[in-house]
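The data layer described in this paper is built around a simple, fixed record for each protein. Such a record has a labelled line for the sequence and another for the backbone structure tokens. For reference, a complete record is included directly beneath this paragraph.
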Amino acid sequence: MKSITIKGSERESVGKAATRAARNAGMVPCVLYGGDQPVHFIAEDMAFKNLVYTPNVHTVVIDLEGGKQFNAILQDIQFHPVSDKILHIDFYQLHAEKEITMEVPVKVVGNSKGVMAGGVLRLNQRKLKVRALPANLPDFIEADITELEMGNKLYITKLSQDGYKLLQPDNTVIAQVRISRAAMKAAQEAAKAAKAPAKGKKK
């Protein structure tokens, strides 16, 4: 999985006044959990642009002043209810020998036979929960829809789980091809035409 580096500095004071001052200065208060003890730090608001405002997921290298570095993932984020400004972020430290659980986006590949015949593709799951060692976390889960005919569904059991485990039930539908209104109308009209008596033919 791709990684983003966040440069910051440890916080000496974590009280409300210090937190308010940090936000007023354009900094985001953060906490890193998962180690021997929590690490409180601040980083510039703009440093999180490519981590938060994207459909992709990344691991994070937290690079603090003094040479301290931690590998982590974003665990929780709080936004201002009106301005949507980032108020606080929690990270969780990664350890190479410990599996981690996180949501990974689904990437659709292939041209569905059902869609080419006039059907409509519906993506039921845009993200899937994955459990793996940090080194095996995928950037995305590939969902091949090539063989989906009209009315078919792609179940999670058809997806690769090479190096990681998908945590959803086996009956989870990833995508399906539904008949479009236009195709349905055409089928109905064709059925009516087939039942109608030919012109000029005596009953």
